[in-house]
Amino acid sequence: MSSASTLGVAVVGTGRMGADHVRRLATVVSGARVAAVVDVDPERVKRVAATVEGCAAYTDPAAAMADDSVDALLVASPGPAHEATLLAALDRGLPVLCEKPLTPDPESALRVVAAEAGLGRRRVQVGFMRRYDADYLRLKELLAAGTYGRTLMLHNRHRNPASPPGFTDRMTVDDSLVHEIDVTRWLLAEEITAVRALRPAPSGQAPRGLQDPQLFVFETAGGRLVDTELFVNCGFGYQVSCEAVAERGTARIGEDHGLLTNTAGRWGGEITPGFEQRFEGAYDRQVQRWVDATRRGEVEGPSCWDGYAAAAVCAAGVRAQATGERVEVALAERPALYR
Ligand code: NAI
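That is the input. Now the predicted structure with NAI docked in place:
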């Protein structure tokens, strides 16, 4: 590390997520400093760099990687830009926290897996931040302990108040369902083997051309079934929940029951408006744990293999969506590094 006391991080991509990670690294997380920011937009990168003292601004990730004060990268550029940055970082042996997706398709994800496997040691953590959410962590702990017997099914709900302009059916899989894909693989500790996509009556609230809501069903290697309601224009708030059904009990998280009020003959609470609020603690914990592990010279959390497997399930999901058929997931052989 360039400085004995802190990890010098270059944040690549200073849009919605990147700017938030800059704020997080500068004001929430301990043990790190934002040494540089990178964005192809020269005005934006200068603006974001100006928010942190001593932070350099670059328009090319390679320039930041060559900066002596940069020890690690946090990649928050759009998915299609990830592969080039990751391969260059792996070439230099730099540790990386890469926002999901690892890359947007299984072929490019497999190239990153091969590059890291070739190094013989992990360098990259993928930003599947639900694994750091306090509720999901409790659910994982409960299921892993086997207290209720074997887990048989998961029921997920993923609701957004409104989809961003230009959101397509494919993006509902690649950008939204991908989180349930990772959560399923992580909670059940096995691969997803097939995907079905079902279309209920479309909501009149959905933009023209977007199928909303949708119901996805995953089969897993161990014969478990997982369903996910994806409703990205529900109108009322951001809601993510997961119920696990096991042999001797069920467990549910994400009901958002924080403050409960009683007034004027009614009881009620609040629904979080967006993912930033719902998963704020998870983003903070994810980045803090990454900084801590990196300073110890270790890599933990979701791996390039997890990023690749998620991309492979997404590809099957997109085909299932387009054909209405059950689509099997095609997975390459898992390199020894990820076993
Ligand atoms: P955004 O569009 O707001 O920002 C992306 C930024 O990257 C822009 O400023 C753009 O100019 C810059 N950029 C484009 N190409 C670049 C390159 N080659 N090198 C450096 N900068 C480049 O996008 P947003 O929403 O911040 O998403 C960024 C990443 O975060 C994506 O991978 C996305 O999937 C992920 N994401 C993750 C979420 C999560 O819950 N974990 C939630 C939302 C986004």
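The longest strand covers residues 151-159.
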